[in-house]
Predict the 3D structure of the following.
Amino acid sequence: MRKPLNEQSKRSVIHASSWIICVLYFLIVYSLLWWSKVAKDAALYDAIISALTITGITYLVYSSLQYYLPNNKNIWKLFSIAAIYTLISILITRFLIIQFLPNEDLIYLTFSLPFRFVINFLIITCVMIINIFWNIQEELLENKRRKDESERMVRDAELYNLRQQLQPHFLFNSLNSIIALIGSKPNEARNMVFQLSDFLRGTMRKDEKQFTTVEEEINHLKLYLDIEKVRFGHRLSTEFEFDDYVLSSKIPVMILQPLVENAIKFGLYNVTEEVLIKIQLTLDEQMLTIKISNPFETDQTEQKKGTGFGLSSIQRRLYLLFSRTDLLQTETHEHIFISTLRIPQS
């Protein structure tokens, strides 16, 4: 059975509305009977009994229709139920009044029954409509919650899948480099294996997190750069530029590595001289901006090859996390390739 989203709030509204109806009904019945010249005691007893009866019926309506959601074909059933509850309220009221008042004071009772039926029917129908609208609202909110939860699970699964793809993507490159170093530089190959182990161990610890601090991300990125420096030796230089207050900012886990890997690929492959890769981080108006720049040679046809997996995976992750497509931009300026990544902090 579907549970209301806010049971306590609904109970409070039921109690408040029922007793408001009780007070207003008492005042209306007493005023009408007094205006009709009915004896004061009879009017008082009648008003009290009628008000308490309609209040009890109100609670009964709320209880019986607590989770009821009619379809278009069952609307007529509501009016039938309202008529039945109205008839019950009239019979109970009449029975109790007869018990408390002498017969000579009951002449007005028979003539007032049609008016009582109409008033009670309208009140009970309104209560039923309010209750059903409340149920519809709860159903809509519950459906929205389930939809959001389902979308979140799908989004988290896709994010996890993207992150899992990044590991073998980098791992294959590293293993190929280790294989290449085993014959000519076995010591460097051995060091690279240890560094790769440390990097993967740190990656596994991040599997349950979507975000981390800039400080943790930079420390993890430096493990990756240590591996790449074994591959490229003195030809790879990196430079970080940031202020200390940036280190506490939030950033998606392992989102910098594909950008730096892309910079290394297009900056060092088929290049013999030293290459400097700059990583600049700034924080301004709740927006963390990371710029990664690397030189490149436009006449190298190899630069145009590749699947673009790193950049496309980042674009997809940013869209899933922030629902924006403008957070990653790339540009070239005088043989310098610049990737600009922006991470909202709000």
The longest strand covers residues 275-284.
